[in-house]
Please model this.
Amino acid sequence: MKWWKPDGSKRQSSVCLLYSGFNGDTATRQCAKGTTRLQNAFFAYMYRLQNIERWSLMRSVVRENVAEHSYHVAILAHALASISNRVFKKSVPMDEVVSLALLHDATEVFTGDIPTPVKHHNAAILANFREIEHIAAARLVSMVPDPLRDDYEKLLLKNEQVSTEAIRLVKAADLLDAYLKCESELSAGNREFARAKEETRRNLMALDMPEVAYFLRELAPAFASSLDELEQNDPQNDSQTH
Model:
């Protein structure tokens, strides 16, 4: 089948893909036989994120899928937003941050999780991947029922309605989850993640965000603890023994 580029020309594809104008036009599904729309399959596809494995090039002690990662990123994004508001007295839209975090990798239900070394191998590969990612986001938007579409379109396409602060915090939470994954694997004796941890930490530091520095200083150390160590440090246990 064929799909259509923004300039109206055709490209070959093994499936009927989606095209959305890069000026933020509403997504439409355009096939060689005419325009149709997938019917309300968005949430069914979101449940399939549990079938998309992350870290596919790495030998992992604990495997992770995109659904798990999305949940973790939402928790971390909420934490960073809370730190931003409560500790640093900012005014971050927490609901928007968490919503964006939940769907930040939604397109991977179609693209899969592309390993970072592959994605960033050169500028051409990255540019092509961003185009594919945009097409996948447009396809997902077209699957949301009309009455709900505005709420999801802005999150999936990350249009001008989404605040730059929310995007910044979700990016930090995404990196932070990767860092904590590396920490977890290293704590289990898996040296496969040693270099990834150092690279991810450098990328986190490059963000120069006080919220990230606070999290790494105050909250991250507990992630390297065993269950016994966590329970030993539980204040509730101390109160019950005195």
Summary: The chain has twelve helices and five strands. Residues 164-187 form the longest helix (24 residues). The beta strands are 2-4, 10-12, 18-19, 28-31, 34-36. The CA atoms of residues 92 and 123 lie 33 Å apart.
